[in-house]
Each structure stands twice: as structure tokens, then as C-alpha cells.
């Protein structure tokens, strides 16, 4: 590919590569096409295009000291760096940088599990440790703690948390960034900083009190570009003795409102883990009469058809962690609360299993009712199975999804907000002529983050577009969708580099003061603009002219 | 899901070789002889598709251990490949969906391996099977597809005959479908992943 970092000549780049080699060793500075191929986003809408976001080189440090050396060299030559932990963030850009020609700092060689404390319930890891690695470490030592894994689990806790990734167990742990407990960061100057109690030499509570004293800047490193995190602590859930699940269904469309209120109460009281919402009416999704009612959001008619088919309108799968007795008590209490709030609600006991589940129990997909849960992640067991989704599925009629992008909008955590978002998203889809795979009127959110709902809207399947021109059209549609979302108050929580400027544009309150604040900090902390310029929509002065460049 | 019995059998076989340091010598010796043929140490096949099972059968007949997978590679990775690749890279062949190949080649790249050969086997709208192959297979692909009656046998021959001394080339063949080809909605992909040192030019 032989591309250069922006603003850097061939001579300067060659000199910088020599210095990188002196820092990490010749074997760990990669420049050939074949060696850089793994640093591409293979699902990119602009793969193979002249503006594809590919690096000019990759360097692989094995220690914090080497990261410091790389940062100092980058400052000297004003070379933009882009740090990745394991680079598995597919659907959100994978390992590709925001700026073509950046040097990728691949932290996979920093792969030590530094500590797992099964009594105080935390782990400390380096960026190259994957969820699978951490799980194996815990299993090998028979430690009684759980990780909370995303799906798939081949990425790293640090990388996932820094991109505000999520999991599937109890609320506190599902917010991976929120569940972090202290970090070590190489700043753009090359200095090493520790946050929270890590700033106090000799403290033995670094991973227990993450706030320290005074302002806590750790938020700057999530979806940001203010430093390279080289070490991070995470709270771990104590291994429960028992797990139980159960299904709740409610008959009418408007019953969603008291159902959500009740589940919110249960989860916020830490009585239940992640709830999985859905609609039994999906069974009617191919019925033209039903589809007409759904398209028109004709609630009376939808309720009539549901009753006629002896189906309920909404369902939620609940899961409980604890002892056999406490999980049963919580399930019984959940049933009592829902029954009080929703006349006609039905309840189906799920399974009641001693933890840890056996492999066979985890892989079992049968049960008292048809479940949507991927059981491995409810048990903190990382897997790779979810990758089937980018192959040919009922949801994805293409044989292979060339344009795999996740876009999820934040909506309020109430039944009213869901019902409104369904209408809004259908209106947007209609306006942009985006076909829906399912009726919007049956769309339900995910509760990955305990205190908010996220709804898939514009999930970038590319809609069958596989040609370069088609991909451009699809990308343009996604950008239009993001704008339309913002007009209605919906922001997205995560995006690939290609769309980060577009998502950042959604957050425009008071003439983009949040972005201006971040960029003021960026220019002060990183005057040469070397660390991940453009990440999170934050552009340093040196590269600010690149904002929005990918839109053309 | 890969059966644990299959995995354990394969793990036992490879562990004994690795444990004595024989595996590296076997590989090196094989590369050195003939046209630098790279011996396949394990075949991964998608057990859901009869054509893939047929490839596995042909490979097994030549002494290559084969492990069946479904749509989930977790067990293959967690129980076997992760542990094996922590010790040393290896040559792995496959006949799977594209998704499985993507997962394995991504994981392999992290452990110093590259894709040496790729083939796509797709049913065309005219009822024929299309086979598009890329890799160091020039000397073997033509005789394989010209001489065998069923395409899985030809693919098995190609998988077992990649050469470290050949540059990659591309070729395409059409054959009659067989087994479940007409019923299978998804293309199958054959592939060889090998240690970077053996891959002159990844494909």
C-alpha cells in the first residue's frame, strides 16, 4: 500500500520507523501489505477505496515503557498513532484508525493478567488480554468470580470498556466502562498517569475506589483520544450459587408500559439480571393483515389480532442470580408485581440450575419455553458463536454481510418511549426508503446498560449492497438516518470511525460546546495531535481539517 | 458444536508430536521434499454440509485428522486451537462457511499465521457449481479437477497439495453439483492457513 502518515514525508517516516524499531525491536514494526492486512476493517463500506482507513505501519510494544517510547517518537515526527488492544471491535470499525496513514499501536503483546482478586472481586489486566483469556485464567485457578463478557468474547476487556461496550449479567457489571476500577495511561507527552487511588503511591485500594480525590479524568479515555491505557482494573461479579429464568408475557399493546416500569423496579433493586424483551407477535410477521395493522400502528386492531391468535403482545425473559431460595423468591416476587400491574399477564417458569452450569447446560437451547437468550453470556462465558449472524440468516438474506456496522440509539427507559421510538424509526425508515426486516411496531429495546434502553436503528447490514457504489449509497443512508435520529432526540452510543463525526454531530447542544470543550482539552494535552485524531469526533488542531472528510 | 471426542483425539495426536519436538521437524522435512508441499496438520469441516463431510472423508483417507464444527467455533477454539497455537503456529485446512473462515483467519493472524489458499464453491443459477481458487495450487488444481468425478475429492487434493515454493495463482472451474449443493443456500469455502514463514504471499 505504501502510504504515509498525513503531513509526513517519506524520509521522516523512514526515520521514525527506525526509531520505532529501536523501541520495540525490528520484528514488531510492520509495514508490508500482508502484515498490515489484519489492521483493516474487513466490513468497511469503503474497503478497497482510495480513502479506506488503513494504517501506514503497525508497531507492537510489549510494555508500558515501550508505549512511552512510541509516543515520544510519534511526537518527534508528528505521526498520528491509533492504539488498539486486540482489534476485534468489528461492527464498530475493527482495528482501523480514524485517519488513513496512522501508525497502529497494537497492544496485543501486552497480554498479562496482572491480578484477579476473588475475595475483593476485581481483576487487573493489560490491553492484550481477551475475555476468553481472562475467563481461562479464572477457570484454571478455580476462582469464584465471573467476568461479564460481550458477544463474541474474543475482544479485550480494556478495548471493549473503552468503547463503552456491554455485557449480559447483572446491571452494574454490564456497563463495562462503568465497572472499571482504576487505570494506568500513557499520556500524549509520554508520561504515565494512574487514576483514582492509583495516584497515591502505596495505596492498596486502587481497584476499589476509582474516584481518588478531585476531578476524575478517566472518562476522557473512553471513546476518546487523550491517552493509551496500558492497565485497567475491572470489578468482577462473585460467582452465584444458582441461576434461574422465567418468561413473562402481557396481552395488550399498552401493557408494555406497566411491564417496563415493573422490570425497571426489579433490576434497579438488583433483584434481576438483564431482561430480554421481545414480542410473541413476531409469529404473525408474515401475515399481511397483521402487517397492515402494524404498519399503521393501529393499536386496537393489533390487540384484536393478538387475541384472535391467542398470542400476547409483549414478553420479557427475566433471570435471577443468587441462591436457589433467593432466586425463587425474586421470581415469585416478580410474578406478584407484574400480576398486580398487568391484568392477564402470564408466567412460565424457566430453568432453575446450580452454578456453574455444565457445558451441556450452557449449550442447551431447549426449555420450558422458546428462549432468545444466548445462555453462555448470561453465565459470563465468552464465546464465538454469535459470528453466525454475519453469515446467512433469516435476518440477513445475503450469504455474507459485507457491511457489518452496529448503530443503536439511546431511548428512554419506559414503555412510552419504546412505543414512540417504534413510530419514529418507522417514519425515518420510510422517508429514507430503508426496508424493514421486521415490523417496527414490534421492535423492542435491549437493556444492555441497566439505566437506559438501546434500540437498533439503522443497523448497518448494508441492505444487500455489495458493490462500491451500493456501499456508498448505504453509507449515505446511514448518515441521513443519524441526522433524522438526532432531530427526534435520539443519539447513538457507539460508531465505527467512518461514522464517528456523524454521531458526534448529534450531540450539538449549545453550539457543540461539549465537542469544543473536548477539543480545547485535546489541544492542551496533545499539542501535536498524535493520539487517535478524530476518535470520538474529537479532532486536534493539527488534523481538524479532516473532520467530516469521509462524507464526500 | 465440535464433539469433545474428536477434539481430544486430535489434541492427543498433535500433543505427542509437539511434545517431542517432532512436529516442527516433520513440517520442515515435508516442505523440503518434492515441490515444497505443506502438510496439513488438521482439517476443520462444517459437519452440517455433506459436501464438507465428503472433503473430510477424503482428507482422512490420506491420514489428515479432521474435526467437524457447526456454526459455533467456541469449543474448537477454547479446547484446542487456542492452546495449541499458544505453543506454535500450525498448518490448518478447512471447508467451512465464510464466517468460520473469517473467525479463524482473524485469530490465526494474531498468532503468526496467514491464509495460504482460498477457494469458493458456489452453486450458480444455471445449476453448475463454480469453484474459484487462489493460492499456490497451480500444479495440482488442474489435474485434481480434471481427473476426479466429484468436486469434494478435487478440493481435498488441492488442500493437501499447497506448495511453499509456488507463487499464488488464480483459477476457476465448473463442475456438476453433488450432495446437498442445490439445497445449500450458502457457499462453502476451502482454505489453508499456515505459519507465516511458509506463506510467501498471503491470499
Structure description:
Chain A has 552 residues and is an alpha+beta fold. Chain A is built from 16 helices and 17 strands. In chain A, the strands form 5 sheets. Chain A has a 5-stranded antiparallel sheet with strand order 5-6-10-8-9. In chain A, strands 1-2-4-3 form a 4-stranded mixed sheet. In chain A, helix 1 runs antiparallel to helix 3 and helix 7 packs antiparallel against helix 10. The model of chain A has no long low-confidence stretch (mean pLDDT 94). The radius of gyration of chain B is 16 Å and the shape is globular. The longest helix of chain B has 16 residues, at 4-19. In chain B, 48% of the residues are buried. Chain B has helices at residues 4-19, 22-32, 50-61, 74-87, 98-110, 138-147, 151-159, and strands at residues 42-46, 66-69, 92-96, 113-123, 129-135, 169-175, 188-195. In chain B, 42% of the residues lie in helices and 23% in strands. Chain B is of the alpha/beta class and 203 residues long. Classes of the chains: A alpha+beta (552), B alpha/beta (203). The interface between A and B is medium-sized, with 23 and 25 residues.
Cross-sheet strand order for the largest sheet of chain B: 2-1-3-7-4-5-6
* Main pleated sheet of chain B: 7 strands, mixed
Task: Find the biggest chain interface.
Answer: A-B, 23 and 25 residues
Q: Low-confidence segments of chain A, ≥5 residues, pLDDT <50?
A: none
Report the end-to-end length of chain A measured between terminal Cα atoms: 22 Å
Round the mean pLDDT of chain A to the nearest integer and report it. Answer: 94
Count, helices of chain B: 7
Work out the helix count of chain A.
16
DSSP helix fraction of chain B = 40-55%
Strand order of the largest sheet of chain A: 5-6-10-8-9
The secondary structure category of chain A is: alpha+beta
Cα-based radius of gyration of chain A, to the nearest Å: 24 Å
DSSP strand (E) fraction of chain B? 15-25%
Amino acid at each position: 500500500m505504501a502510504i504515509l502518515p498525513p503531513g509526513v514525508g517519506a524520509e521522516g517516516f523512514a526515520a521514525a520507523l527506525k526509531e520505532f524499531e529501536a523501541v520495540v525491536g525490528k520484528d514488531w514494526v510492520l509495514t508490508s501489505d500482508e502484515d498490515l492486512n489484519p489492521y483493516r476493517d474487513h466490513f468497511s463500506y469503503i474497503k478497497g477505496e482510495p480513502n479506506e482507513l488503513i494504517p501506514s505501519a503497525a508497531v507492537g510494544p510489549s510494555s508500558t515503557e515501550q508505549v512511552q517510547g512510541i509516543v515520544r517518537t510519534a511526537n518527534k515526527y508528528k505521526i498520528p498513532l491509533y492504539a488498539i488492544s486486540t482489534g476485534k471491535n468489528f461492527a464498530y470499525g475493527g482495528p482501523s484508525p480514524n485517519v488513513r496513514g496512522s501508525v497502529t499501536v497494537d497492544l496485543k503483546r501486552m497480554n498479562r493478567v496482572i491480578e484477579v482478586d476473588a475475595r475483593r472481586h476485581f481483576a487487573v489486566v493489560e490491553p492484550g488480554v481477551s475475555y476468553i483469556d481472562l475467563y481461562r485464567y479464572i477457570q484454571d485457578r478455580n476462582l469464584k468470580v465471573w467476568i461479564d463478557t460481550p458477544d463474541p468474547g474474543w475482544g479485550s476487556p480494556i478495548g471493549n470498556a473503552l468503547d463503552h461496550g456491554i455485557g449480559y449479567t447483572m446491571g452494574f457489571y454490564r456497563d463495562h466502562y462503568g465497572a472499571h476500577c482504576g487505570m494506568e495511561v500513557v499520556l500524549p507527552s509520554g508520561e504515565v498517569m494512574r487514576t483514582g487511588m492509583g495516584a497515591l503511591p502505596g495505596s492498596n485500594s486502587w481497584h476499589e475506589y476509582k474516584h481518588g480525590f478531585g476531578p476524575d479524568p478517566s472518562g476522557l479515555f473512553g471513546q476518546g483520544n487523550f491517552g493509551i491505557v496500558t492497565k485497567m482494573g475491572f470489578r468482577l461479579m462473585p460467582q452465584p450459587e444458582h441461576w434461574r429464568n422465567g418468561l413473562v408475557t402481557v396481552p395488550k399493546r399498552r401493557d408494555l408500559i406497566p411491564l417496563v416500569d415493573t422490570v425497571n423496579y426489579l433490576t434497579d433493586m438488583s433483584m434481576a439480571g438483564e431482561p430480554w424483551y421481545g414480542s410473541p407477535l413476531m409469529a404473525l410477521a408474515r401475515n399481511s393483515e397483521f402487517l397492515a395493522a402494524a404498519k399503521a400502528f393501529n393499536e386496537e386492531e393489533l390487540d384484536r389480532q393478538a387475541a384472535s391468535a391467542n398470542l400476547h403482545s409483549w414478553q420479557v425473559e427475566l433471570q435471577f442470580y443468587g441462591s436457589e431460595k433467593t432466586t425463587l423468591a425474586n421470581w415469585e416476587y416478580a410474578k406478584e408485581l407484574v400480576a398486580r400491574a398487568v391484568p392477564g399477564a402470564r408466567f412460565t417458569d424457566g430453568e432453575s440450575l446450580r452454578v456453574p452450569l455444565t457445558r451441556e447446560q450452557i449449550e442447551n437451547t431447549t426449555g420450558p419455553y422458546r428462549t432468545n437468550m444466548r445462555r453462555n453470556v448470561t453465565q459470563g462465558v465468552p464465546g464465538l458463536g454469535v459470528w453466525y449472524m454475519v453469515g446467512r440468516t433469516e435476518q440477513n438474506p445475503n450469504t455474507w454481510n459485507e457491511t457489518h456496522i452496529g448503530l443503536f440509539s439511546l431511548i428512554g427507559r419506559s414503555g412510552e418511549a419504546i412505543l414512540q421510538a417504534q413510530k419514529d424509526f418507522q417514519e425515518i425508515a420510510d422517508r429514507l426508503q430503508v426496508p424493514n426486516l421486521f415490523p417496527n411496531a414490534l421492535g423492542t429495546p435491549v437493556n444492555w446498560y441497566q439505566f437506559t434502553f438501546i434500540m437498533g436503528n439503522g443497523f448497518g447490514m448494508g441492505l444487500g449492497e455489495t458493490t462500491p457504489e451500493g456501499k456508498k449509497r448505504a453509507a449515505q443512508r446511514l448518515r441521513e438516518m443519524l441526522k433524522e435520529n438526532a432531530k427526534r432526540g435520539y443519539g447513538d452510543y457507539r460508531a465505527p470511525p467512518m461514522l464517528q463525526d456523524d454521531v458526534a454531530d448529534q450531540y450539538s447542544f449549545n453550539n457543540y460546546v461539549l465537542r469544543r470543550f473536548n477539543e480545547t482539552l485535546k489541544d492542551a494535552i496533545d499539542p501535536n495531535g498524535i493520539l487517535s485524531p478524530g476518535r470520538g469526533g474529537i479532532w486536534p488542531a493539527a488534523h481538524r481539517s479532516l473532520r467530516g472528510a469521509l462524507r464526500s | 458444536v465440535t464433539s469433545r471426542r474428536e477434539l481430544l483425539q486430535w489434541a492427543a495426536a498433535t500433543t505427542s508430536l509437539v511434545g517431542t519436538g517432532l512436529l516442527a521437524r516433520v513440517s520442515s522435512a515435508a516442505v523440503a521434499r518434492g515441490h515444497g508441499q505443506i502438510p496439513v496438520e488438521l482439517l476443520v469441516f462444517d459437519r452440517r454440509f455433506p459436501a464438507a463431510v465428503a472433503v473430510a472423508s477424503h482428507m482422512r483417507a490420506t491420514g489428515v485428522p479432521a474435526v467437524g464444527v457447526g456454526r459455533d467455533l467456541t469449543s474448537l477454539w477454547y479446547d484446542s486451537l487456542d492452546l495449541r497455537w499458544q505453543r506454535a503456529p500450525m498448518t490448518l485446512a478447512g471447508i467451512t462457511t465464510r464466517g468460520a473462515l473469517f473467525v479463524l483467519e482473524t485469530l490465526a493472524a494474531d498468532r503468526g499465521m496467514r491464509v495460504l489458499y482460498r477457494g469458493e464453491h458456489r452453486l450458480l443459477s444455471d445449476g453448475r457449481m463454480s469453484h474459484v481458487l487462489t493460492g499456490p495450487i497451480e500444479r495440482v488444481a488442474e489435474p485434481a479437477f480434471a481427473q476426479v468425478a466429484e468436486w469434494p475429492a478435487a478440493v481435498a487434493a488441492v488442500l493437501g497439495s499447497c506448495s511453499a515454493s509456488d507463487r499464488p495463482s488464480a483459477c476457476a472451474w465448473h463442475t456438476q453439483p453433488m450432495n446437498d449443493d442445490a439445497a445449500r443456500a450458502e457457499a462453502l469455502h476451502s482454505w489453508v492457513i499456515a505459519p507465516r514463514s511458509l506463506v510467501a504471499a498471503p491470499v
